[in-house]
Amino acid sequence: MLPWNRKASGGVLPRVDLGVICLLSGLSLFSDSLLAKDSMTEEDLLAEIPMVVAATRLPQPVTDTPVAITVIDRQMIDASGFLEIPDLLRLVPGFQVGLSWRDHHTAVTYHGQSDGLSRRMQVLIDGRVAVGSLFGIVDWDRLGIVVDDIDRIEVVRGPASVSFGSNAFTGAINIITRGPYDNPGWRMSATSGSQDISIVSTQYSHVGEKFDYLASASYFHSDGFDGVNDESTARSARLKGHYQFATSAALDFQLGQSEGPWGRGGTGLVIDPVAEKEATEQYGNVRLTQSASPGNEWYLQFGLSSSEEDDKFNAGLLSDLLGVSPAQVPLIVLGQQDQHISVNTFDYTTKRLDVEFQKLTLLGNRHRAAWGLGYRKDMVEGVAVIGKTGWETMETYRAYGSLEYRLSERLLLNAGITYEDNNFNKGEFSSRLGLNVTVAKGHVFRVSAAESWRQPYLAEYKHDVAIRLNDGTVIEQVEISTEDREAERLRSYEMGYVGNWLNGQLTTEVKVFREEFEKEVELVLDPFYPEVASIFNPGAILDTNGGSTEITGVETGINWQLNKDSQLWLSYAFSEVDQHCQMFAFRCLPENDATPKHTGSLLVSHDFNRHWQVSAGYYYLDEMAWTLWGGDTKSYDRVDMRIARTFNFSAADLKLELIGQNLGSDYQEFNQRNEFETRTFMRATVQFH
């Protein structure tokens, strides 16, 4: 097939409107507060540099990581007022969030290049892999947690394959939830508002001498967008525990289940009607940790998970689908009589076993290493998605290692490598090399280069969606994977700077990057694919390698402690993209590029020190295209505001919040049918002493 080469279309800078006016007014208020307050002490200003593990699996301050990383802490989470977990990633430079593509699945992507599946990033919750086995999709509604459960999120902005395998092709999202010791006793939260959103969570935490645990249950419901069948309901329960059975040994575990219906389909086609499907997910994860001495430890982790989607419906009589009389059916489909056709486009069951061993080692006083082995077994059953009865299995083996080598007081070398192999494709090495240079106290420059490979998911190897008769005969092929599936390749180059100013009151971060994608898996329409009938589309959609993309850009993030009670967070990303697609590839059909030129956010928060807190957020996303089920979306900006009041009683603390989202004109999100209007919510949280 001939390639289509498309240059990036020019973006527009964010317009000055209600959002900017609100935020400038807020900054003016903060300035007045600064003048009125007593001078802050050095102890007030010197904040601890965040420690992270997601970049290299070694505990490091963000100034030592070889790749850009953003930490969304609890203060940011509270100030944002966001109700759904994916929304929090709007605060990260270079990230895009598209609410609802079909089944209230939310698409989250870094530098665009995504459809509704968003299958190029790893997502972990307390070490548990939360990415699906079949498509690589993250079911954000059924993670088993809500926003109130999260302590912080570490977001690796760049290839993390050397740490987490090929799933972390473009980045990694490491979610750390609150522990039993954070909020001991009973805690309850309830949210209600626009779109009939209802979020209720209850948890109980116990802290003992050796055994700590947290048990929680939550309920989530949303009608989704007006006029779009993306209603979602999720009922979840989980148990998280820590048992210190020896001074140097501990056992951590988490168990959970989520279930509930989704609104599905609604394209108007006979094989994609407005309907509802059921989904369930269960998981269990156990980790044994042994610490010989500080910096020297190992762990062994076992994880089991399963999920099921029940998506069956009657598409009507075969004669109606073919547009012929019942008597003509045997002439078109030889030997077949007219009959009802059952369609189950997303009807499947998956299971996963995940085993991992990791060892942390101190190599003298100046050097450290982390290495490990991993095994994962993914299984899927479902004629609707793989075209056959019985289980299809993919086994993945992984070996990895990271080295932190301190060349001098000012020079730090980070090196990492991983090898990943499975029974569908040949093994590949991913590697990264980075050098951090401390030019002055609190000011670090870094440079790194990485090469990563992404092994496709089961659906990308075995996808086979068709309209079939009850005996399995294919009437029309809708989507199918080609036989020669290869791993995707990414070369990434990064230069960065992290600086602490004003005695730690102001932290800045800048990243300049270039990414080169090759052998990208694309969805390509083949109008000449042979089939009995063309009901859905002429020919078939092929999952095949062939695309390539180059992205060059700059990102920045600012965290500014204006005073003891006022905080500001800023993120901005600029990208230039050059896409190369195969003929009839869905990714290049839209007018816009799949990577937006400008992405930005600004969040400010002020505590009035009388139990009142006010925060406001401004978010901008340039025009872009979401591939498949999405489409072209215009640039938009939005303003969110939040007012909170805390009441302290002898037996409990009560926090009431009024939250407003998009306090301006409507905009389109992910799909032109998804109109995001002004929304308001009330949230109440009670923590019993």
Task: Tag the structure with descriptive keywords.
689 residues; mainly beta; Maltoporin, Chain A; 8 helices; 57% strand; globular
What does this molecule look like?
The protein is mainly beta and 689 residues long. It has one domain (3-311, 346-688): TonB-dependent receptor, beta-barrel domain (Maltoporin, Chain A). It has 8 helices and 40 strands. The protein has a 22-stranded antiparallel barrel. It has a 5-stranded mixed β-sheet with strand order 4-9-10-7-8. Strands 2-3 form a two-stranded antiparallel ribbon. Strand 36 (636-648) and strand 37 (652-661) form a beta hairpin. It is globular and about 85 Å long. The model is unreliable at 1-47 (pLDDT under 50).
Ranges where pLDDT stays below 50 over 5 or more residues in a row are 1-47
Work out the helicity level.
under 10%
Mean pLDDT: 88
CATH superfamily: TonB-dependent receptor, beta-barrel domain
CATH class: Mainly Beta
Structural class: mainly beta
Strand-residue proportion: over 45%
* Rg, nearest Å: 26 Å
Approximate shape: globular
- The number of distinct helices, counting runs of at least 4 residues, comes to 8
* Domains (count): 1
Query: Describe the biggest sheet?
Result: 22 strands, antiparallel, barrel
Query: Do you know the CATH topology?
Result: Maltoporin, Chain A
